[in-house]
Amino acid sequence: MAEPVDSKELPVATVVRPRRARISVVWIVPVLAAIVAIGIVVQRFISEGPTITIIFRTAEGVEAGKTLIKYKDVNIGQVTAVSLTDDFAKVEVKAKIAKHAAGLMVDDATFWIVRPSISLSGISGLSTLLSGNYIGFEAGKSYASERAFTGLEVAPFIAGQPGKQFVLKAADLGSLGAGSPIYFRRLPVGQVISYGLAKDGKSVEVKIFVNAPYDKFVSHETRFWNASGVDITVDANGFGVHTESLVALLVGGLAFDTPDFLPAAQPALANWIFPLYGDRATAMKAPDAVARRYVLHFRESLRGLSMGAPVTFLGLPAGEVTSIGLSFDEKSTNIGTRVVITFFPERLLSYADPEMAAKFEAALAKSTQKRHSFLQRLVEERGLRAQLRSGSLITGQLYVAFEYFPKAPKAKVDWNPETPELPVMSSNLVELEAKLTSILDKIDKMPLDAIGDSLKKDLDNLGETLTDARKLIGSTDTLVGNVDSKLVPSLKTDLEALQRVLQATEQAMKNVDATLLGPNAPAQQELRDALTEFTRAARSLRVLLDYLERHPESPLRGKTQSSSGGK
Amino acid sequence: MSAAALGAEAAGYVSCTTCRLLSRPALAEAPGFCPRCGAELRLRRPRSIEVTWALIVAAAILYIPANALPVLTTTTLGSEESDTIITGVIYLYRSGSWFLALIVLVASVMIPLGKLVALSYLCISVQRGSAKNNHDRTRLYRLVELIGRWSMLDVFVDAFIVALVQLKPLMSVEPGSGVVYFMAVVVLTMLAAQSFDPRLIWDAHPPARGRHG
Q: What 3-state DSSP class applies to A170?
C-alpha cells in the first residue's frame, strides 16, 4: 500500500536454505509401509495359484475354507467355495491351488474325496476320521492345462508305485470291487483300481494294477480269471469247490497265471487289454486251433446235459457240447433232439505220444477226404457211436461219450452238411431204464389179483386137506391100537404054532438022529430040503413082520395091490 | 478455557514440554533449552502435521494387509483354519457371541479406522486454518490419544492364545502375518497421535479476537 518501501519490513535473506523446503525423513515410514504392502500384494500375486473347479456328485465332508487338496499327503490347495451346479444335480467345488502345484492341473489329473473307509481289504483314509475329509489328487500325464475337473467317485489307485496297469474285459463284475486283490500263485501282487461298464455296455472293464516286480510275470499270453468268492462247480466232472484265499473268498479277487504250454513271452505292455475268464480251468485251457463241429441226434432226453458239458473219446476229454436244441424232421414230423458238439482233435493228439501224433497229423491233417474216410471207417467198421452218459449219479449231469460199439447197427456219415451228423447209441442208462420199464410193465400186466384169489383158494383147500390129514392121523392111532389088541394075540398063536413046529422039529431031529445019522441016512437029503424050506419060512416071516410094521392095517384090510409077499 | 485465552507463543513466551516452565525464548527461531530441566524448548513441535500425515498414511497402507491377512491360524487335528480379523468377528457373531463380536469389531476394526479418520480430520482442519469447533477437536484428540492403546487388545489376545494353546498333536494356534501389520497400524496411529501437536488447533484462532476476547 505505501509506495516507499520500508527497508525494515523486507525479509532478511537466510544464510542456510530454509529447512522447510526439504522433505521430512519421517516420510520414509509411509514409503516403507507402502513398499511392504506392495510387496505383500506382489508376493500374493506371484504365489497365487489357479482357481479350479471340480464337479462332485456329493460334497461329503467338503467345507469351504477348510478342506484341503492333497497330493502325496502334501497340501496343494484349499477349497474356497462349495455350491450346487446350475442344474442342482451335482456339487461344484472351487479350490485355490498353490502356485507351486499349478503345473499339476492338467486335463487328465484326477480328484476324489478321501473319506475313511474300512473294508475287508484294508482300512484307508483313517486320518480323515480326525481331520475331516480331504480331496485327494493324482497328477496326470498330459501337458494341457485345465481348470475344470470332474471328481472321481472312488479313489484311483495311487500311482507312483512301481508296477503296471492293465485292463481286463469281463462279461460281468462278479464279486469284484475297487481294491479287490490280485493273486499270482496265491500271492497278493496287486489290486483292482477301478471298474466300469464298457462303452457299448456289453462288458465290464476292470482296471487293475500289478505291483512291481510281479508285473513282469504278466505277459501277453497271461490269463486272468475271477477268483471271486467260492467257485462251486457242479458239472459232469463232479462237484468242485475252488477258492483263492479267505480275503478273496470274502471280497472277491482275481488271479492270473501264464499257461505252461505257451512259450515264454515278453512282459505285457501297460494298459494291455486281457479277457477275464470265469474260472481257472477256462482260463488255462489250451486254445483249440482246430475245432470240428458235429451234430448228434439223441433219441433220449437231454435233461442233465448242459452247454459246455465234456465230450470224451474213449474216456479222454476231446471237446464240449456247444449247443443243445431241437430238430424237426419233416418227413416223419418228429421232433427230436439236436446236440452240436465241438471236437478238438488237438486235445486228443496231446494224449498221444509225440511221434505218433506227428504221424497221425501228417496222415490226416492234409486232406479232408482222408480224414472223412478215416472217421467213416471208425463209424462203419468199428462202430464208433456217441452216447449220452451220466457223469455223476448225484448231480445227474450228462456228458457225451464216443465209444466203440461193434454190435451197433450199421450207420453211415453224411459229409454233405456243414456240420455232419454222427450216429448215436442209446445210452446204457436209457437201455437199462427201458429194460426196467418193460419188466415193470410185465409185472404190471400180471393178473396179480387173480393169482392172489386162486392162491387164497388153494390155501383154503390146503387147510381142508390138513384137517383131513389130522383126521387120518387120528384113525391111524386107533388102527395101531387095533394092531396091539388084535394082531399081537394072533402073532402069539403063530409063535405058539412055531414052537410046536420047533418041538415037532426037535422030535423029527431025534428021528433024524436015528434015520439021518445012520449009515444009510436017506432022510439027510430030506432034512436038507426041510431046512431050506424052513429058512424060506423064516424069511417069509421076516418079510411079513416088516410088512406088518409098515402096514399095520394089512391084517385088517388085506394086502394092497402094490405090495408083494404076505402071510 | 476461553477461546480468547492468550497462548504462550502469542505472549512471547515458550512453555517447556517436559516440566511446563514458562520461559522467554532465547531467539524466536531457536528458543533454546529449558533453564530448569534442560529439555529443548520448542514453540511448536517441529513438522508436527507432516510427521502426523506420514504416519497416518503409513498406518492406512498397513491397515489393508492387517485386515486382509489372517491373524490366527488354528490347527485342529490336521485341519487348518486361518482367520482374519473380520472372519473372526463373523465367526463370533455366528456362534452367538454377538457381544464379543461387537467388542472385537470395535476394538480391532473401528478404533484404528476411527483414529485414522480422526487424525486426518485434525490435520486437515489445522492445515486449512480452521478455527471452528476448537473445543470439540481438542476433545477428539484427547479421545484418540486415550483409546489408541486399547486397539492392542487384539494383539494381546493373539499373543495369549498362541502362548496358551499349544496342544501340539490335537490343537495348536499360530499367529498369522496379519497380526504384525495390525500391530504396526496400532503403533503408527499411536505415534501419529503423539506427533500431532494439539496446540496447533488453537493457533489458527485469529489473534485479534484472542487479544480482545
A: strand
